[in-house]
Design a protein that fits this description.
By secondary structure, the chain is an alpha+beta fold. It has 15 helices and 10 strands. The structure holds protoporphyrin IX containing FE (HEM).
Length: 420
């Protein structure tokens, strides 16, 4: 490269993977603050790595000429969270073709179907909760979302398997940063559920079961790649889990929704009016404010210079999602929970990135973002307008270090009653 380059701020030391694990959501943010820089160099997993934060960083990170995904995801996350050969690790035309398969499930009608199913499951759960002394919301909502996810995806879920499948799907997103026994819990869960999905894919292909045509099970079983071949059974299973697992993970946002309502009673009052725009702003603020996905990873595709800094081919690069959503250059008083800020949000695909940024079809932005918003709105309405409950004293603190972060008590509620 012939351009003049500046030295990127650099964290000294042999390796900082442990600091990343120790500081979690705050790792990039802490260094962004101490270096006074939206980009810095460090060493992770034994190699040079770059961390970036902010709107401009997101714009360059989602430029497909500059970054690629193949080989970027850490092995631990592949073994638990992602699975092998899924859409997350594809690039270029192959990615676009696979992504279309996902986005074909996200029509307004399909999203309506999912929200109707979610409502139905909340109704059933509400009748059960009215009979219970105490309800642990996180655990209950995971089960609601597992039932909903399977029904929507066309995946049969016998009643006697509900608890186990819920536990296994949750283990995949509760353990990606874990070491030791919890990591193995996540891996075992993935292997078990992938096998189960594989049997279902085979059954669809052998005409032994016939899920509706608009479901993930049907579409993914019959999807053909760019060469006209069906996906391998393993890859089809991984992709079905890329639907089921994150739908269950919406339980984390629902938990934070309940927490936000508890901590901001004045917001609850405003939401009682049923104003849809205000509800949407509240949901957006929950996704901005609370920690969920800390960062996303890619590799530099070919050498380039950005803001005077050299990016060398093959360098692991992390884009800070949590830190961008709390960036003072983008958000006024970023550490204050304030849904009203979304009345003025410009809708940029790069400055508010809880589920990634950029373009859905061409890039890796979350395929399920519309679904997440729709489901969160349904659940918010239930929590505010369809039910009453008390929140007893408990430890509602949540960590900015453990990934994923969940309120310590998982939000226990008592005296649940359906509103008249
Ligand atoms: C629960 C809340 C969710 C969060 C916080 C979340 C977050 C994310 C993030 C950060 C990415 C990576 C973006 C990138 O690599 O640039 C992603 C990708 C993805 N998400 Fe989500 N997601 C959620 C829900 C969902 C749902 C409900 C679905 C599906 C029904 C889903 C399906 C996917 C898929 C398939 C990808 C890979 C997209 C690609 O590589 O092109 N997610 N999500």
């Amino acid at each position: 490269m012939s351009e003049n380059k500046n030295q990127m701020p650099r964290e000294e030391g042999i390796d900082h993977s442990l600091s990343l694990l120790r500081e979690g959501y705050m790792y990039i943010l802490n260094r962004r603050q101490s270096f006074h820089s939206n980009v810095f160099e460090t060493r992770l997993l034994g190699k040079k790595a770059i961390c970036m934060s902010g709107k401009e960083a997101a714009e360059v990170f989602y430029d497909h000429d500059k970054f690629k995904r193949k080989g970027a995801a850490p092995k631990r996350a592949v073994q638990t969270l992602f699975g092998e050969n899924g859409v997350q690790v594809l690039d270029g035309e192959e990615h676009k073709h696979r992504k279309e398969m996902f986005m074909s499930l996200m029509s307004p009608q399909a999203i309506q179907k999912l929200t109707d199913m979610t409502k139905h499951q909340w109704e059933t759960a509400l009748s059960k909760w009215e009979q219970m002394d105490q309800v642990i919301l996180y655990d209950e909502v995971k089960e609601i979302m597992c039932r909903t996810a399977c029904e929507w995806a066309g995946v049969p879920l016998p009643e006697e398997d509900v608890k186990e499948i819920t536990k296994d799907l949750a283990a995949m997103f509760e353990t990606p940063a874990a070491v030791g026994p919890n990591h193995w819990l996540g891996r075992r869960a993935r292997n078990k559920v992938e096998k189960r999905m594989g049997h279902l894919v085979d059954k669809v292909r052998n005409d032994e079961i016939n899920p509706p045509e608009d479901t993930a099970l049907y579409r993914f079983a019959w999807h053909r790649d760019l060469e006209g071949n069906l996906l391998t059974t393993d890859t089809a299973s991984v992709e079905i889990l890329n639907i089921l697992r994150p739908i269950v993970a919406i339980a984390i946002f629902i938990n934070f929704t309940a927490l936000a309502l508890h901590q901001h009673p004045e917001e609850r009052e405003k939401l009682k009016s049923g104003d849809k725009q205000h509800a949407q702003m509240f949901v957006q603020e929950v996704r901005r404010f609370y920690p969920f996905f800390p960062f996303v990873a890619a590799l530099v595709k070919k050498d380039f210079t950005w803001n005077g800094y050299g990016f060398e081919e093959g360098t692991l690069t992390l884009l800070d999602l949590y830190g961008t959503n709390h960036h003072p250059e983008i958000w006024e008083n970023p550490d204050v929970f304030n849904p009203d800020r979304f009345a003025k949000w410009d809708g940029s695909p790069f400055n508010f990135i809880p589920q990634g940024g950029g373009d859905y079809m061409m890039g890796h932005r979350c395929a399920g973002e519309w679904i997440t918003l729709a489901v969160m709105n349904v659940c918010l309405d239930y929590l505010v307008n369809q039910m009453e409950y008390d929140v007893p004293d408990q430890d509602l603190s949540y960590s900015l270090v453990s990934i994923p972060s969940i309120p310590d008590s998982k939000v226990a509620v008592k005296g649940v009653k359906r509103k008249a």
